[in-house]
Every structure is written in C-alpha cells, then in structure tokens.
Structure prediction request, 676 residues.
Amino acid sequence: MSDKLCQQRSEIDQKFKWDIEAMYPDESLWEKDLEECMQEASNFSRFKGKITESAHTLYDALEAKDRIFRKLEHAFVYAAMKKDEDNRVTKYQSMDDKCGSAIAKISASLSFFAPELLEAEPETIQKYIAENPKLELYRFALEDALREKEHVLSTAEENILAQLSEVTGASGDIFKMLNNADLTFGTVVDEDGDTVNLTHGNYITFMESHDREVRKSAFSNMYEAYKALINTIATAYNYNVKDDVVSARIRKYASARQAALSSGNIPEDVYDNLISVVHEYLPVLHRYTELRRKVLGVDELKMYDIYVPLVKLPKSDIPYEEALSMMQEGLSPLGSEYLTQVEKGTKEGWIDVYENQGKTSGAYSFGSYDSKPYILLNYMNTLKDVFTIVHEMGHSMHSFYTRKTQPFTYGDHSIFTAEVASTVNESLLMQHLLQKETDPEMRKYLVNYYIEEFRTTLFRQTMFAEFEMLTHKEVENGGVLTAEWLCEVYDKLNKDYFGPALAEDEYIKYEWARIPHFYRSFYVYQYATGYSAATAISKRILTEGEKMILTPTYHVFDLYKNHQNAELCYSSIADEKQEGYNLPIISQSVSVNSDNEMTLTVSNCSLTECRTIEADICGFSFDSVRARILSAKSDAHNTFDEPENVTITEFDKVTKSDRGITFTLPPCSVVEIILS
Prediction:
C-alpha cells in the first residue's frame, strides 16, 4: 500500500506556478508602495472642505484618489495571493494583515470624500463636467455615486466605519484560516487500494468514484471534521451575517440584501424571481434524483451518491498540457485574437496549477489593474478540472480586455456580470466536445456532465442563495444563528431541493459550514443568473449572420420541453438494461398539460437495434396523434455548412391500437408523441 500525499510547494516545478514575482521582483518595493499609499492618503487632507469648490479641484481629487487606490490594490493583491500559495507561512499572513490595516487607515483618511461630494447638487456636478472636459472620464462614476446619496453618512461617521473595517471582516479571515490551514480530513483508501490524504482539492474526485465505499468514506471524513468544529464555525458565520445586517442598518438600507445588491444597481426582484422560478422547476430536479437512484441501482440514494457520473468511463487522466489544447479547441469560436492571448497567458505565468499543502482550495481569477490576470487552480487531471481552467480563463480574459480598454476607474467589471464570461467559455467547451466526440459512452458521459452543470450551478447555487436570504432575515428579525438552527434550516432546504428520492443523511446538514462563498454575502445567486445569461450568449456566438448551429442536445431538450408546467403521469416500461449499467435502453417520460393533451417522450439508446413499443394508455381517451422524432448515428453533428445533419422531423409511424398506441423506434432516437 502506498501513500499519495499532497506535495509541498517547494516540490512543484516552477513552470506550473504563477509568475507573481513580476508584480514585485523585490519585496522591498511592496513595502515602498504601501508607505507611499499611506503618505499620499495623509496628503489627501488638502482637499478637505474643497472637493466641490471648483471643477478643477474635483478633478484633482478624483485623480489623486485613483492614484492611491491603484497602488494600494496592487499591494493588496500581491499579499493576498502570496498567502494563498501556502496559508501556513507567517510572513505572508503578516503582509496580508498589514495590507488590511493600511486599507482601513487609508479609507479613514479619505472618508470625507463621499459625504462632501454628495453635498453638492447634481446640477453643480453637471456644470463642472461641462466646464472641465477631463471630468467627462468620471461622469458615470459621479452619477453612480449620486444614486447612493441617501446611504452615505456624515464625514465623521464614514471615518469611524472606515476604521472599523480593519476588524469587521474578521469572521471571513478566521474561517479561511480554519478551512485552509488548520482543518485536516484524514485519509481515504482509493479504488487502487492506496491511502490518500483527503483534501479540498481531491474531495470531489472521490465523490465521483464509482466505488461507493470510497465515496462514503470521503464524505463522512469531510463532514466529521466540520462537525467537530461546528459551533466555532457557526459563531464565525453568525457574526459575519451580523456585520452585514448592522452595516446595512447604519447606511439606512431596508435589508442586508438590498445593501449588497445596491452596489451593482440590481433590483431585489431579480433575486426573488430566481428563487421563485427554480422552485417552480424543482419537480424536474426531483425526477432527475429518482432517475439517478434507479441508474445507480441503490435502494436508498445518499448524498455521497449525488456526484458520481451515471456513465462509467475508464479512469480519467487528462494531463495539464492536454487540458490546454482542449481549451484552445473549445474556445475557437471566439476568434484567433482571443486564442492567441489565451495561449500567451498560459506561457507567461498567469496560472498556478497544482495543489500543495496549505494552498487555498478551489479556483479563482484575481489580479490588480497593473498585474497579470492570475488564475489559481488545484488541478487533478479530470475533465471537471478542464472545465475549471476554461471557466477561470473566461474571468481572466474578461479582466484582460477590461483593463486593456478601460481606465482604472472602470477597470473592474461588475460583480453581477462577473460569472457570465466564465460560463460562456464552459458552454462553448461543452458544445465543442459534444460535436467532436464519437464514442457513444463518452457522449453519454458528457450529456450527464451537462445535466450536472445545471444541477450544481442553477439549482445548487440557488439553494445557497435561499439559505443566505433566510440566515440574514433571521438575524434581521432578532434571531441568533446557532449551529443547531443553521443545520436544521440547511437540512430542510436540501430535502426540498432534492426531493423524496434522497434518503435521510446524518452529515449533509453540516455542508453550509464548508462553503467559503457564504462569507461574501449575496454573491452566489450570480452563478445561477450568470449561467442563464451565458447559455443565451453562447448560442449567439455559435451563429454566422442568419445561420445558427442547433446542436443535437438542443433538439433533445426541445422534445422534452412539453413536460414543463405539466402534470407528471405514472409510467413504467419493461426493458433490458444496457450492458454494464443500470441505465435502460428504452426510457420514457409521460405528462398531461392544462389543455388535456398527453405527451410521451421516449428514447431508444441502442446504437444498432430498433425497438417496437406497444404502449397501453390507461384512463385517457384521445382522438388524434401527432409525433416528432430525432434520429441519427451517434457521431452525427451539425456544422455551419451542414446545419441540419441532425434535426427533428415529423414521425408518422404511430398507430392506434385497442389498448393505446404502437410504434417502432430506430436506433439512437428520441420521439415526442402528443395525444389529443
């Protein structure tokens, strides 16, 4: 038996590390920047009482403020990312903390700026812009600031809040240290019989194992660790939410959520509508959960069964270099200029590739206005990791083009749009793989992966968003977020979302405790909204003028759409299973809509054989039958030159029988039959 231990950072080849030293080749320059920021902030007092006395003074103040924060951002990003390399290194803990203190002091020094600016009438600001053409650069920023006028406090009050910012983020920092530096999860014996250290980086890999005991072991080990610290983590999260609530009240917002969404000028209706629409479609997720139970062949579906692919493939091993090639191919619709820059980024030290001990978990894109748009990964050689690279590269390219085309004032994209570019890239890669892949089993795997993206991004992130909404409402109503309350609420939400097919679980109630995004309140809903926007945008990208590629997957969804907002009917079918799987060769969905039309959608997954279906229709009378079919070879796909290689056609081979209907399905086909 061998040990597969997480590497130390010193053991990783330099070519797989980001070139963060490009920011500060000599760390004494970091100290110099921080000192200069402090000095320039102190000198900013020359504008006190004069911000809006003239167009010239207003411009000088805005320009000086940008200069300070541009340099401060650069120093902050460096310290934060150096700490993320290995959270155990005290030197970078100290630098990060020093930067946090500097930000608080500088913010306090400049705290008079906003109150003074907002004392001016909008007409005065417009007059100054007309007088000084240089102020045109700041027009949008000034108008946006005026929009928040009622939530800006007096100079003295803003100064106090700025100074307090040094400690109000403590909850998130405490959780981060617990989560990335102190928590350990023991070991798991993997499918090969090797003992492996369980980490944040490899947890999902274990959850995707086809060995149920491996999944169960990783799952229980992970949550036993959080269970042991659940009261500590609950306290940290309680004060994080209290911070949000108190800050919102001080600034005269109706709620913490309103305050969080206000900065992006996002109506709260967007948030409520997301939760409402997702709840409307929870029956779809419930059906998928039940299907997952059947396909896996388990009497009880446990939470550790949720991530394993329904289609078993040979063990995935995609080297990093191969992942980069897949990214280039998948993003080709974005054009040569985009691809050239992506390739340069991979060669010029944008990416920190592999997991090491103490490294921050997960993945992100980060950087300053004057740095490279860096990417942190914990690459594990899986297909999911390939999608992660493509996702984070979307963020980094968004940042690259933003900084290339916008001045510092507008050099950071809005949070609401942040997840769009990244998810567009994922969608393009998926469409590319589905078009390119000829192996039937791999195509099934990809379709399952695509479905899982909807589950994890649309449904799961909305569940997180609802949890955040409930926790903040509880504190706003005078409640306290105890470990017991948090676990109870989260457990109920999990049951509501996954439905009755999911068995009771003793651990999933602790899952909230390991979600770092909860310390950046009201952020996660944007994954779901961004996914929706990205799906639409990626479709637009896959067009040439009036031409549009409609993928086979698109057509499959089209044949199932009638089941939305319809009542599901009981149906069963006797059919053999595919060799090596619990997945049936013939599958069906049956529903009746408000117009009393019955829709049957039936698929034949056999690649070589027809199937004759004699369907008994009980308790439903009908006069007419109409049908559509999608059928093609498993490797068929659409292109701009041949956009209808795979398309839906009329199907006239359905006949009425004494007991219902009879029809024959060709190999690799899906049919929609509507009985009226």
About this structure: The chain has a mean pLDDT of 90.
